């Protein structure tokens, strides 16, 4: 009798679990996704880039997709893209550069400026884009002033064992004159140049990022990473890092080795929009694949769409290496 009573209790308990499990399974109706235009652009007032490190003038126009879609994001090739100043005047138009080559889309969704307008520091600009079948989008940003770099030095030394004789090693130090009453955002990068001041394709990296300057417990200032001036209350930002960079590059077409003669130190100041976009994108990437991580939305300042329009300016200082 006792055994039967125990068996009945177990069966009742299992039935309760089954019923509870049925109650916990919920079907969620996901509404159909209405694609919206996306925008990615950076306005830069630094002028020509003789070393040819990148092309910040380009604008990317794409389309969004639903959360359950796994296809690669698609670019939009028939958009009208214009840049306006604060007075509402058109100062630049952009033309699509994508081409179809044997079924492969190259630069699809990439737009380049037509007239070569150079944005002015301190000015506000609005970019608008529209395409058939989509709601028009727009975003507004400004262009920061050029960073004021008051000192740069590179103390070269013999590369360590991990350099294998193929890298240049030393300590980079620089000082930025910051406006203490403003919130500013910076990034420091170092590129290798040959004797003709052309980029060799090599970018310096920190030997040990843990030796770079650390700001409180919230943000570490590292080479190649964006950082805020929040903890620099004196108006002086002192940056120091032990770095390495490849000691040669290769000539295009011939493959001939080209020795590195100079280092170009770039101090970039970006707008708050770019800083927030990069930081939230990094946070989302850090949680990717972790089902227990809290989801992080990527910052956007695009009205009626997604993406970011931001501004940047770059101060360049060239340092000659030891013979």
UniProtKB/TrEMBL annotation:
<dbReference type="Pfam" id="PF14054">
    <property type="entry name" value="DUF4249"/>
</dbReference>
<protein>
    <recommendedName>
        <fullName>DUF4249 domain-containing protein</fullName>
    </recommendedName>
</protein>
<dbReference type="InterPro" id="IPR025345">
    <property type="entry name" value="DUF4249"/>
</dbReference>
């Amino acid at each position: 009798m006792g055994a039967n009573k125990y068996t009945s209790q177990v069966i009742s308990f299992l039935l309760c679990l089954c019923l509870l499990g049925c109650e916990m399974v919920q079907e969620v109706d996901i509404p159909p996704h209405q694609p919206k235009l996306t925008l990615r652009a950076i306005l830069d007032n630094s002028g020509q880039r003789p070393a040819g490190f990148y092309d910040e003038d380009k604008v990317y126009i794409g389309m969004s997709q639903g959360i359950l879609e796994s296809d690669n994001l698609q670019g939009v090739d028939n958009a009208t893209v214009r840049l306006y100043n604060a007075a509402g005047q058109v100062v630049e138009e952009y033309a699509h550069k994508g081409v179809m080559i044997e079924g492969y889309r190259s630069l699809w969704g990439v737009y380049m400026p037509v007239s070569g307008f150079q944005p002015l520091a301190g000015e506000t600009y609005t970019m608008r884009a529209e395409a058939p079948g989509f709601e028009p989008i727009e975003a507004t940003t400004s262009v920061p002033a050029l960073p004021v770099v008051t000192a740069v030095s590179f103390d070269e030394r013999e590369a360590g064992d991990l350099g294998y004789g193929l890298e240049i090693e030393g300590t980079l130090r620089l000082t930025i004159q910051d406006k203490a009453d403003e919130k500013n955002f910076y990034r420091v990068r170092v590129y290798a140049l040959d004797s003709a001041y052309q980029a060799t394709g090599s970018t310096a990296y920190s030997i040990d990022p843990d030796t770079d300057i650390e700001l409180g417990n919230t943000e570490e200032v590292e080479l190649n990473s964006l950082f805020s001036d929040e903890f620099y209350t004196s108006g002086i930002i002192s940056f120091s890092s032990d770095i390495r960079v490849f000691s040669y590059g290769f000539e295009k077409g011939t493959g001939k080795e080209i020795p590195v003669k100079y280092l170009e130190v770039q101090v970039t100041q970006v707008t708050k929009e770019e800083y927030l976009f990069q930081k939230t994108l990094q946070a989302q990437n850090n949680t990717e694949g972790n089902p227990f991580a809290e989801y992080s939305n990527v910052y956007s300042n695009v009205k009626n769409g997604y993406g970011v329009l931001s501004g940047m300016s770059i101060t360049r200082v060239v340092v000659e290496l030891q013979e």
